[in-house]
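Lecture notes, unit on protein representations.

Consider one protein chain, 379 amino acids long.
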Amino acid sequence: MADMSTATHRTPLTDWTVVVPVVALGALVLSWGRDLPGFAVALVSLCLAGAVLAAVHHAEVVAHRVGEPFGSLVLAVAVTIIEVALIVTLMAGGGDKTSSLARDTVFAAVMITCNGIVGVSLLVGALRNRVAVFHAEGSGAALATVATLAVLSLVLPTFTTTKPGPEFSSAQLTFAACASLALYGLFIAVQTVRHRDYFLPVDTGGSAAGPAAGGGTDGDGDHAVPPTFRAALISLGLLLIALVAVVGNAKAVSPTIERGVADAGLPHAVVGVIIALLVLAPETLAAVRAARRDRVQTSLNLAYGSAIASIGLTIPSIALATIWLSGPLLLGLGPVHMVLLALTVVVSALTIVPGRATLLQGGVHIVLLAAYLFLAVSP
């Protein structure tokens, strides 16, 4: 794994992976709650991009120490927790215009992970070995969890009749929140304890790659020395700093994004798409780098794990936040998005069931993401 051996022995204070998260956090502190001019937005955006790259590096150090699937879990959960904080913060200060922000951001996260991250990872894996190989059992279980959570939280509100519009009643929202937490907890138990082997990378022959596959080998297959506990702990702290900087700086530039979206005459849902793209950037880069190292299963763990965490943690958090948030909470998807979700689930199932994928499957997922992005801009 690139840069892992150096990260094992030293973490110099002048290293860019240490400096960039701290600088990005400083930019967040200086820009928080202020109306930024153009040059300041550009500087904050640069800090945001640097924090994304630093987050990927530190996530790989932690993953190399703890192995798969725990490494993927660390990044997915950390990103999602801070994403939830961003959504709640924006909803608290945005009024009625943010009533659909949770739905738009969560659905965007599902489409980006299940089509964008999965598609790019399969393309990279297939280009390297002609066929991308993974565990159908683990990925299929993850996909089933994503589909169930998405339907319970984003489709059913459109059809329930207790409240008018695409909203849940208080009792229905409570049930959806409890069901989401229960499914998320069950998935984590299966992924990390009972059937951990289903989520470990496999070699090109389709067999389990062994303990080293969880992050114990470098890109050439030679064993790399795992980082020390101290180095992994430092990287975990810097990962959290970097992720806070990513999401916080995304919020700092969000007023500029909202003005740009409004000035361009685009739907307000585009704001949720842009936020999801920014927040998921670390996971996307980490997934692509894993696929380049023949660890497509790790990429799928990141993709589906992020989708599960996005729904499973966001819906309960929003349900809790409605205690003090005013205004409606629109969760139900419209007809176009429901069609895209159904097509994504069907195509994903056909991709996952064989346990092997080619360039075609990756291309199909990329086209589905492109269709979603285009229809978000031009509904």
